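Sharing a chain and its predicted structure for anyone who wants a worked example. Both blocks are below, sequence first, tokens second.
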Amino acid sequence: MALLAKKPKGTADVVPSKSYMWHTVEKIVSETAQQYGFKEIRIPTFEDTGLFVRSVGETTDVVQKEMYTVSAAGDSKFTLRPEGTAGVMRAMLENGVMNEGFPQKVYYILSCFRHENVQAGRLREFHQFGCEMVGSASPRADAEVIALAKSVLDRVGLQNIELNINSIGCPECREKYRQALRDYFEPHKDELCRTCQDRLDKNPMRILDCKSAEDQAIAKDAPVILDYLCDDCKAHFEKLKEYLGDMNIAFNVNPRIVRGLDYYTRTVFEFITTEIGAQGTVCGGGRYDGLIEELGGAKTPALGFGMGLERLLLVMQKQECDFMQDKTCDLYIATMGESAARKALSMVSALREEGFFVEYDLVERGLKPQMKYADKIGTKFVIVLGDNEIDSGFGKLKNMQTGEQTDISLGEQLVEQFSQAMIDQMFSGLEDEVGDLIGKGE
């Protein structure tokens, strides 16, 4: 029978057998952000379209080609968020978060939407972990945010990840750079793609971010921003490099990094890998000291980063990183007959209230199929209930790993005795691990 519907192009399903990988990453990024003093923020999936035009930039690929914009009768246009920073800044302004003292530090895990060419690590609906720090203009804040991103990548176990940094200056020194780019690209104007021809006057820095191979070749010898930095921006960048050295964080200075969004100022950075093809950036970010003012707030320095979780998971799988194990069933209660099934209901309730993962038969199978199912889901223990067990008040608790069976109360002592069985199994597993290590001479 043919399926009547399939998932849209550029989206992905996370089925139960794969969700443990997401749980691993989400746990690590949340705990690491909290360790650095960041608190979670949640924002709507869609925003007023003007928010992204003002913040991301009218000449960016995101605004010109990739946004999903919708409208309903009587409403203005809304856009599914293509990134997280703009919406987070809007939320912090609107809810007075910035009145609570600086620095304000928030993190989020959310879905984003961009109409892009689908390839490895690049989807049209993707998920992003992001952190934003508001209220500090110090290069120490830049180093702190970069250190947080690196801590996440280290804790998930990634290898061979490089940090590239650059400064794209402030509005004053960047205007001189833009003029230098116009002078460079003007003789090649007819060779540029149609989009970059339009960008030449409005925002020539966006040409450096163009994905066209022809435009990239033309841009290869273009002037670099580091030669046009004002004294303050240059000093900021030099201090950042010193602080990264103090933190033992290795980096490369890459003057070609401009990032794809217009709100960036001064520091920009990327963590990259060569293991997922052309889309090798697993994390990118930087400063956006003018964004909050652009959205109607007071002039306030800010910075942050976004980390694509699909790309992160892709690299983790390629590098065979460790994922936390999916939780398996502690106890399966196999039943024979209606009386046993009803007894199982009360036992399951009592054990679940104490935090145990307990399953029982819900599809009215025979005993043999139930035991096969219990084995298939990897349950640790099984109790078989029939009339004899109910009459006596005791059942046999079978350890599915060792095959050992012990008597267990079906009444008031059930929770206490099963808890002890779980403890005994845990210590038995630890003893086995220690024995293996001793045998290996470790």
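Comments welcome. Residues 433-438 have pLDDT under 50 and may be disordered.
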